[in-house]
Amino acid sequence: MEKLFDEVSKDQLINDFKVVVADAEALLKATANQSGEKLTEVRTKAEKSLKIAKARMADTQAEVLAKAKEAAKVTDVYVHENPWKSVGFAAGVGLVIGLLIGHR
Q: How many CB atoms lie within 10 A of CB 47?
């Protein structure tokens, strides 16, 4: 269960990071017409950092996707090998959710 939360956290982190990267790119484009040695240096450094961050983000996203596919395969195998345990577990979860909804 903890792994599921880690993957959800990674997915949320990736999405948040994509927004930050898009905002940074927009800022770089907006300041493209500005001149000055210091501004050019900062812009160049920011562009380099963004490229590195995008590459790492793509690697992380691919890793998360691969782990999610592997988890789905393992779950599928388990359900096929233990169908009645799976049905019982699903019924139990459904009962708990039903009870929680019924109390509200």
A: 13
